[in-house]
Specification:
By secondary structure, the chain is mainly alpha-helical. The protein has one domain (2-67). It has helices at 2-28, 42-67. α1 (2-28) packs antiparallel against α2 (42-67).
Length: 68
C-alpha cells in the first residue's frame, strides 16, 4: 500500500505541475483565453510549480527507498 500511495502522489504532483506550467505559458504568451486556470496570477503559478517539483522529488525518493 505505501508504494501505491507514493506512486499516486507522484502522478498527482506531475499533473499539478503540468497544469500550472501550461497556465504560466499561456499567461506569458498573451493568450489568457486559453489559460487552463484563467491566468489568475503568475506568482501563484510559480509557487505551485516549485512546490509541485519538491513533491515530485520527495515522492520519487521515497519510492526508491521502498524498492530496496
Amino acid at each position: 500500500m505505501p508504494k501505491a500511495l507514493c506512486l499516486f502522489s507522484l502522478v498527482a504532483s506531475i499533473l499539478v505541475v503540468s497544469l500550472f506550467v501550461l497556465d504560466a505559458i499561456a499567461s506569458l504568451s498573451g493568450m489568457e483565453a486559453l489559460a487552463v486556470l484563467g491566468a489568475a496570477s503568475l506568482m501563484m503559478d510559480l509557487t505551485f510549480i516549485v512546490l509541485g517539483g519538491i513533491l515530485i522529488y520527495l515522492s520519487w525518493s521515497t519510492y526508491r527507498e521502498q524498492r530496496r
